[in-house]
Amino acid sequence: MTHETRPRDFALVALGGVLWGTGGLAGAALADAAGLPPLTVAAYRLLGGGGVLLLALAAAGALRGLARTRPVVVLVVETAVLAAVYQAAYFAAVQRAGVAVATLVALGAAPLLVAVGTAVSARRLPSPRTLVALGLALAGLVLLVGPSDAAGPGTAAGALLALVAAAAFATMTGLNRRSVPGLGPLPLTATAFTLGGILLLPVAALAGPGLAVPSDAEGWVLLAYLAVVPTAAAYSAYFTGLRHVPATTAALLALLEPLTATVGAVVLRDERLGPAGVVGAVLLAAAVVVLRPRRAGSPTMDAPGRAAGHLSRSDAARARSANTSGVVRASDPREGPAPR
Hints:
Pfam families: EamA
Number of helices: 12
Protein name: DME family drug/metabolite transporter
Subcellular location: Membrane
InterPro entries: AA-Vitamin_Transporters, EamA_dom, EmrE-like
Keywords: Membrane, Transmembrane, Transmembrane helix
């Protein structure tokens, strides 16, 4: 696995965050139109997104080569359980502590947990660029979400549940950075999310007044959108790019979700964004700019200001003595390898 972040993979992970943000708008519209409990929506979202992708892959014959080895089964089950835990814990946190607290803790703690876990496993601190982006993103998230309401009796329990959601998302991000032979990102998303939705259905049935379904066409269209765009497409893009993007960077790019949801709410739902929210949105966008992949040095350059073919005499002598005639050494990327 390469440790360099490629622009295409960076864009795929960022796309996942943006598409997740549209899911918040669709979920709010679905709650208004069909009156479904949030946990029921989450169960249908996982089951529908995984099921649609599973059917599409089966129709294209892309599941014929799916391996049934122990590593494949383990990763699918782990991802399914973590996705179900994330959804259940997050929505339970929203019910107890409110949207602001749940969002700040769940989305804010995830990149911190990933950064700490990566630093411990790699035995080195994140790069200065990652630390700057982390500070910008967390400050932006606080300003964008805004201050929460006064603490209530369920705030502490809600914050703890949001922390569980953050840990589930961080673990899922870390697990899916590794490649498992015979299991690509699309089959992984399809099988894991279908299983995750099945696991979440009984939880939703016990937590609410049964498993209600939309009663009109508008509700079904919104539910289909939730399944296809911010679930199947978003997680497929995220898991695909994740194989070549540092885990901390990926977790930070997931913060594009609240940014997209906020901008969409202002444009589509006529909600107002105060000065603090505008500053928060700018800081989140700045964090993405700081994290963007830097272009590696040209392979025709051996050092700054020295083109290949114009080597010094000492360099040419070393090349001849090493019997490496005709081989041009590519320069190292200016920024070095991306942080793990």
